[in-house]
Backbone:
């Protein structure tokens, strides 16, 4: 009896490719990538070559390996934070310069490893300085200035940052829960919904005044979606109930439609507010005796 297997390159049940573009658009590539993961290799090599170096050599090797591993971990987080910063029009500079700390720790780790082989001061300092310089040259430094925040109320941006952080935590919880279901189509469908939510989050970040109107969506509704996703994953893992699956997909479709409609409303309201501000400014200038030429629409 033939059995259908799903997979990464398998078509959907519908047999159409209509969702392929949305699925490709929702793929989130890890900005750290292989080059950041390779930075864990020096820690492994230093530790391995220190196993037969005696008590002092082993101790220095373990310390050097730990420092290098911490450097690689900070680098990976720093690259992800930098990618998140670059993807937003309005963003605050990372509070912790992870990449700079990673460069300094990489130099320190290599300096300790060099001291194990060649005790002294000059050689470890040279090796450490060169390593730090090469690390900065290869991976750069962290963003040092916020962008797109000129003239924006600091209190409002802080409120938005906290709301977005909570919303992202809900999205992460949904992603982790749905992985337990082991259904590629549902995972792809959830990613599309998450992209819609993140579109709203970016809209609110660009205009913090929209937070009040969007708070129910990125707070109450998104929390409900998280709870429903966790509950669905628990049930689907146990029973693989097709009706439960269809109900959850319908819920995602309804939520996506509502989130997208609300985002469009926020954008229209922002455009209307801009037109009102322009009109008020024109009236004030005309009262001051400055007459502006109004361009007639084509």
Residues:
């Amino acid at each position: 009896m033939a059995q259908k297997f799903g997979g990464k390159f398998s078509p959907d049940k519908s047999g159409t490719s209509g969702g392929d573009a949305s699925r490709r658009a929702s793929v989130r590539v890890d900005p750290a990538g292989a080059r950041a993961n390779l930075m864990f290799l020096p820690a492994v090599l230093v530790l391995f070559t220190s196993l037969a170096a005696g008590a002092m050599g082993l101790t220095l090797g373990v310390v050097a390996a730990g420092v290098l591993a911490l450097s690689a971990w900070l680098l990976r987080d720093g690259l992800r934070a930098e990618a998140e910063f670059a993807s937003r029009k309005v963003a605050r500079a990372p509070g912790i310069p992870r990449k700079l700390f990673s460069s300094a720790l990489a130099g320190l780790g290599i300096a300790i490893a060099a001291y194990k082989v060649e005790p002294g001061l000059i050689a470890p300092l040279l090796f450490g300085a060169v390593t730090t310089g090469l690390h900065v040259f290869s991976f750069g430094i962290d963003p040092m200035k916020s962008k797109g925040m000129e003239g924006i109320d600091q209190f409002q941006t802080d409120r938005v940052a906290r709301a977005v952080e909570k919303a992202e935590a809900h999205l992460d919880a949904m992603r982790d829960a749905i992985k337990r279901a082991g259904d590629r189509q549902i995972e792809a469908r959830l990613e599309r919904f998450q992209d819609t939510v993140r579109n709203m989050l970016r809209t609110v970040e660009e205009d913090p005044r929209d937070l009040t109107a969007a708070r129910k969506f990125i707070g109450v509704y998104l929390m409900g979606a998280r709870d429903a996703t966790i509950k669905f994953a628990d049930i689907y893992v146990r029973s693989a109930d097709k009706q439960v699956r269809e109900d959850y997909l319908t819920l995602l479709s309804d939520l996506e439609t509502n989130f997208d409609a609300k985002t469009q409303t926020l954008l229209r309201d922002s455009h209307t507010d801009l037109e009102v501000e322009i009109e008020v400014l024109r009236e004030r200038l005309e009262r001051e005796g400055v007459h502006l030429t109004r361009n007639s629409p084509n």
The CA atoms of residues 204 and 210 lie 5 Å apart. The chain has a mean pLDDT of 77. The chain is about 70% helix and 0% strand.
